[in-house]
Structure formats: structure tokens, C-alpha cells
Amino acid sequence: MSLPASHLFEVAIEVELPENSNREPLEFQMAKWSPARYAVFDFAKNVQEVQAAAPICPRTDDRKNDQTRMTCRPVALPVTRVNDQTWRVDPKTNSSFTLSYKVFGNDLSGTFSQLDTRHANFNGGSVFMYVVNHKPDPVKLVINPLGVWRIVNGRMSNTNQREWQFPNWGIMIDTPTEIAPNWTINDFEVDGKTYHVVVHSFGDEGGKRAALVRDIEKIVRAEVAMWGAPEFDTYTFLLHFAADDRSGDGMEHLTSTQIIQPGALGEPDVYENTLGTIAHEFFQVWNVKRLRPLELGPWDFTHPANTRGLWIAEGLTNYYGHLMLHRAGIWDEWRFLRREAETINGIENAPGSKLTSAEEASLKASFLDRAQHIQSTNLANTSISYYPKGELLGFVLDLLIRGKTNGKASLDEVMRRMYDEFYLKSPNATYYLRGRGYTSEDFQRMASEISGVDLSDFFARYVRGVEVPPYDEVLSYVGLRLVKEQSREPYNAGISVMSEGESFVIANVQNGSVAEDAGLQTGDEILMLAGKRVTSDDWLRTLNRYKQGDRVPISVKRDRRTIQATLVLEPPEQFEYRIEERKDATAEQKALRVAWLNGDIRH
Ligand SMILES: [Zn+2]
Ligand SMILES: [Zn+2]
Description:
This protein is α+β, with helices and mostly antiparallel strands. It is built from 17 helices and 27 strands. α4 packs across α5 and α6 packs across α10. It is globular, with a radius of gyration of 27 Å. It binds zinc ion (2 copies). One zinc ion binds next to α5.
């Protein structure tokens, strides 16, 4: 990282070939994507100046070998780019050689990397090539920090560490690393395990740091209380408060998490949003990092991973992330229930809910997970995210199990038993990690076993199918009900809009909507509605003065021409959901609710 303003990381990969190996050419590859961000990003696009040379000379910081270094004269080896992500090196007669390259990184995120004058922050998948067919090999990482910059990651054995030994490439890239002159660290302990809260703030913290660390500890305690002792001695929360208002991300790892929170800690909402991300990412210490769908590790980085289980891995984590804020004492009962009602609002008002199931959304992750689309897509009408959809399935399944077993079992228990069976007690299925991955069917079987109910109908209708989950029925077990009301502004004609300079244009037209019937299209600039000029702020108010059956004239600009059309309003389609107490809630139902919210099981 000698030139931070260039954003160019300098990487050298030293390869030692086995004695008597046949010196075949070796291939080096940049991953097309990296774990838990399923969209394809082709990290090779930022690689430049790939070179190879032999033999390996002692590094400049290796004083003992100064003499050898002076006399060591590496000779260039030919490097051939084989395809978009692969480079081939012929070692000739050499038993070792170095492949070196630069990689551009200027994104602070849980997937990409950033080198600038403030810091170096990397996620290994976007920086380090692997040797094809040798991902299982042990790998040593040496970092040469710039000047007085200090290194920190989730696998530190001492504070001045510059070298790491990893069992394989997959574990190396599971270790995001921060190198900067001015990050700070706070520690706490829970049940003999040490937790580090590393913070690099680019904005004002408003004196909230001490409270933040205390609240993170509460979340850790709540999640450990559900799962039992985690399988590590130390864990690191690597937090950035990115004052650029652009960067925002959270990524889970085996012994750490990389969290980038937009804004500054001292600003409104940033504190609460940070805790929400913490509760989600720390839950994934268990759910997804260790207890994982079959397809999630080791990975083939030449094409996207395909799994039907992301609604479990990410969606159930979303549910528990919210529930844990309550169990940690940060959210009260109604704050949690309001949050779940908001998710119901989002999912049940989305047209994609009628077309894409939770399992199919998981399989479409590479199109959905922050994927960029230059080609126009209809995903806004056809898709939903496995995060909120899985969250609601977790919510419903938990209440269903608690209701059917009268509080004797819960989704918590399903998760614990899954962790036990597939992580702790299964023999290692691969070199990468303990245990083996589960299938969707494994999860269904475990949930059925623990609830004592055959859930095949439930999974067919709500997990693999697109029927609306039985929210109201399961809420009644705990003395609650779901209220569905027509929205205050129930009409949007199936249009969503975005501002474009001074004007506002149609961003999406729902299939089968009033706007589609009127011939309106994406990209149309809305000029007048009902004979008056409207803006992106007041067009909905104007439209909602009309009711079912009314004909509302609209004029839009398309291809430099003004077009007149008529919106013929149909029955209202936008609804608002809220969760409230049932008037007839019994003491028994209320007790079941308390047990659910607190994570208790009744005997
Ligand atoms: Zn930093
Ligand atoms: Zn997640």
C-alpha cells in the first residue's frame, strides 16, 4: 500500500511447488463474486500489471537475509491471460516463483476494498487471487502496512501482528482487515469470551461510543443466551461510520463482522441502525457462517452460488435480529411488533410477492443482492427479497410452533437443533469448515419434528408457493391480531416515480395496473394530473382526491412529445397493516406471548 492515493493495493503471491512436482503451468484466478454478496462483480476488472518472476527473493523487511537479497536477481516468467478471471504462469524449471499484480480498490464495503489516504480496508475476495485447484492449501498472509498504520482483524494473536497462517484460502478471505493510523478499540467479555469493538469514524460520534459498546454487549448476551457458547475465543466488530452518506453494509464472518454505517454516530437514527446491523451480523456467527445451506462453502468462484436456503440463512436472521433487540432490552414489545408490521406492509403490498416464493427469491440472489442492471428488468414487478420474506416466514413459523405445542417448543429450538446436527455433530463434509450444509428438506424435517406437526403443506404453500402466510391465525395464539386497512392514500395507479433534475419521471409501472391500462411507460415525465401541474411531492395527494370508477386525465412527456392519457381508478390496492392486542386475549395467550418475546420454553 505504498501509494494510498492511487487506491492500488500491491499484491505478491509466492508459490512453492512440491519437490519433484512436474512443473506444470499454474493458473491464478480472481473470484467473480464473494461469499454472502451473491451478485457477480468480476473482481478481475480491477486487476492490473500482472507479472511473474523466479526465484522468490527475501523480502525487504527481512534484515537477516540482506546479503542474499542483494544477490538475488529474479527473472521474469511468461504470464498468459487465459480468460476474464484467469492468468497462467509457466514456472519452467523453478521450484518457486512470485506472481505480482496491483488491484484497484476504492469502495468501503463488506465486499469490496478501499485504499486511500485515510486507511486500507480489505475484503480478501476482492483482492487476493487463488491458485486454481489449490484453494484447500494452507496460506500465509504477510501485510506490510504503510508507515505507522496499525493492522486489526478478527484473527489477531498480538497487537503488532503482521503475519497470519490460514488453513485455506476460504478462511483467509473470511478475515476482513483494517489498516489505519487512528482506529480505536473497546473490549468486553461475555462468558469468558473476549469481544473487540473496533471503530474508525469519519464523522462526529456525539459522545455515544460508551453507550454503543454497552448496547452491543447486551445484544451479544441475548444471542448467546439463545444459541449457547459460540465457537471462538475472541470476536471483533469492525465498524466504520462513513460520513460520505453513500457507503452502508454489513458482512458476517466466522470470528468478526465488517459493518459500514452511513452517516456519523452522532446523527439521528445512526445509533439505532447500527445496533440493528450488529444484531443481524452477530446472529450469523451461528446462522449462515456455521449452520449453513449445503451450497455455501467451499465455493466455486467461476459462477454464482445457487441455494434455495437464503430465506433461512438471511431471512430468519432478519427476524431474529429484530427480536433480539427486544430480548436485549433495547426495543420494547411494541417497537418490535411495529417493525414486523412494517415488514408485512412491504411484502404484502409488493407485486413480486404474488410471483416469487421465498425459495425462488433465494435462487435469484445473484440478480437481487445489490446487483447493478444496465439492461432494463422487470424485477421490481416480479421479485421480492429473501430478507423480508424470510423474516416473515420465521415470524410465522415461530408463532405456529409455539402455538401448536402450547409453548413447549419454538423456532429457537429448531435453530439450536439444526446447529447441533449439521455443525457440531456432523463429520466434516469438506476441507473448508466443520460439519456439513443442510438442504431445505432438512430444515423442513427438523421444524416438523420439533413442532410435532407435518409442515409439508406449510412449506408447499408459503415457502415454495406464494400464498399469503397465515399472519392473523398465528398472532391469535399470543393474543394479538393483524389489522389490514386501506392506506390513507390507497391509489398510486401502479406507478412509482423518481426525480430527474427539475422534473419527475415514472420509475416503474406495475403489471396489470391502471397506469399500464392507460398506456403509461417507465421513463415518462409526468406533467399534469387532473388538469393541474403536479410535483413528485404532491401528485399522490392529487390522485387520491378521486375514487374507484373516476377517470383522471394525466399528461406526460415522452420522446419530446406531450401525450394525454386517462387513469380509470379501480378498487384500492394499497393497504396498511398493524399488529394490535386482541380484546379477548386470554391470560394463557398473554403468557405465551411473554415466553415468545423473552425466548422462554414452557415445561
Ligand atoms: Zn478504516
Ligand atoms: Zn446477513
